Amino acid sequence: MNPVKVGLLGLGTVGGGTVNVLQRNAEEIARRAGRGIVISHAAARDITKARICDTAGITLTTDPREVVDNPEIEIVVELIGGDGLAREMVNRAIDNGKHVVTANKALIAKHGNQIFAKAQQKGVVVAFEAAVAGGIPIIKAIREGLTANRIEWLAGIINGTGNFILTEMRDKGRDFADVLAEAQRLGYAEADPTFDVEGIDAAHKLTILAAIAFGIPLQFDKVYTDGITHITRADVAYAEQLGYRIKHLGIARRTNGGIELRVHPTLIPARRLIANVDGVMNAVLVNGDAVGPTLYYGAGAGAEPTASAVVADLVDVVRALTTDPGNRVPHLAFQPDALHDIPILPMEEVNTAYYLRLQAEDRPGVLADVTRLLGDADISIEAVIQKEPAEGDSTVPVILLTRRVLERQMNQAIAAIEALDAIHRPVMRMRVESLK
């Protein structure tokens, strides 16, 4: 049987890794897929530059339309990124009756509902394992491996850049800005690191995970997002003293009132396995009603880890080429007509515990005023740390851990605390999750 011809859009880090993996493991991949898989055509902005892969035998072009419109191509792999040209090419490939594999989390999170509807209409597959957590097969695990379960919640370290920064701040006592600069030098962070450090990249991925976990439409615009730029090395140290680690988590939870979708810095008990995932590594913790908690760990980025997921999708698509479209694994795990539009909870309706850091005047009665205001808001205190003032300083840091409470109540309490003359604004707040 002739090999399946694949067209590749993008020959950067992941594109080059995909070529290398397909060429190096060609025999093994063919044994798994039942047919050979070859990249016959590829598009790149500059086809003359040096690559990490051998492009001999691949027809190169600067126009991705030549690849997408080529009648010999059965599968298009989109590794361009973004949701401009990539969206145009993916839709064009589907219109041409071609299957698509993509690593583009922004494209799926923002436009996946439309793309999957068109793919279903055209009877083609859009595979996107590489869009979340790089080489970790988390999409397949939730969509297929855990299909017997009612997923209750999931929590993930799904951005390696942020995890590297927080790890360095903890292990070496460094400031955020210093570590960010190093992450940029090492290539972990972009020149503009906003998507990583503000949680937007993680929000794209959480949108996808929540859709396949709960059978809901993709709803990126409803994810609450908070970044890590305001975290100090003192916060990291205080968390350690309290028995916690700070991780930038994406959390999706099913509740009686709706679905929580949130990305923010989170204190989690240091004894949890996910709290000990360090550096640029990713991990996703999924809790199902039958299996309980399961943890998925591995490289969340990089040429060959991500290529591993891309090629796995290619194998799945090749296996599905002769399958009746109605019998394929649904894009979002649930049959398209069985998705439930469960409401997404606004952040003020989320119930969680809190870490608060106050900078207070060093005088009697201030802590009593703070605890009174928390009590008025029906917020219980779990732990308190009050530090000695630095020499010549009239203020002291006060750290509080609270029990679980609605975010709305905490917002009101913080506003009241910040109104005190003895408190220097703003109050630092982070959420706390036990992840039991």
List the helices and strands and how they pair.
Elements: E1 4-9, H1 13-24, H2 26-33, E2 37-43, E3 59-61, H3 64-68, E4 75-78, H4 85-95, E5 99-102, H5 105-122, E6 126-127, H6 138-145, E7 151-157, H7 160-172, H8 176-186, H9 194-197, H10 200-214, E8 224-225, H11 233-241, E9 244-254, E10 259-269, E11 281-288, E12 292-299, H12 303-320, E13 351-361, H13 366-376, E14 381-386, E15 395-402, E16 405-406, H14 407-418, E17 423-432
Helix pairs in contact: 1-12, 2-12, 4-5, 5-10, 7-8, 13-14
Report what the structure shows.
The protein has 436 residues and is of the alpha/beta class. The protein folds into three domains: 4-135 and 303-338, NAD(P)-binding Rossmann-like Domain (Rossmann fold), CATH 3.40.50; 138-299, 2-Layer Sandwich (Dihydrodipicolinate Reductase, domain 2), CATH 3.30.360; 349-432, 2-Layer Sandwich (Alpha-Beta Plaits), CATH 3.30.70.260. It contains 14 helices and 17 strands. The strands form two sheets. Strands 7, 8, 9, 10, 11, 12, 13, 14, 15, 16 and 17 form an eleven-stranded mixed β-sheet that branches. A six-stranded parallel β-sheet has the order 3-2-1-4-5-6, sandwiched between helices. Helix 13 runs antiparallel to helix 14. It is elongated, with a radius of gyration of 24 Å.
